[in-house]
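Retry 2 of 3 after timeout on previous attempt. Resubmitting structure tokens to design endpoint.
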């Protein structure tokens, strides 16, 4: 789970790696974490995410060491 509180992003990735980042007052999200292998061991790649948050949702992009790129959808739980 990833939590945003007072503009600070914290939590764990699906691979149980520490997630860190921030959200600006305008709703711009930046976060990153080390990626993991299938058995949740760090593999020394960095996943970076950028996005825009609105009231209950948002969207953006991710990039893993310029080799894997895609889009993300964000929702408030």
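Retry 2 succeeded. Sequence:
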């Amino acid at each position: 789970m990833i939590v945003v509180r007072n503009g600070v992003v914290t939590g764990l990735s699906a691979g149980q790696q520490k997630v860190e980042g921030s959200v600006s007052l305008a709703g711009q999200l930046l976060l990153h974490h080390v990626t993991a292998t299938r058995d949740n061991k760090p593999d020394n790649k960095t996943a970076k995410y950028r996005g825009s948050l609105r009231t209950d949702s948002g969207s953006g992009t991710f990039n893993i060491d310029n080799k894997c790129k895609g889009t993300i959808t964000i929702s408030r739980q």
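Attempt log closed. The chain has a mean pLDDT of 92.
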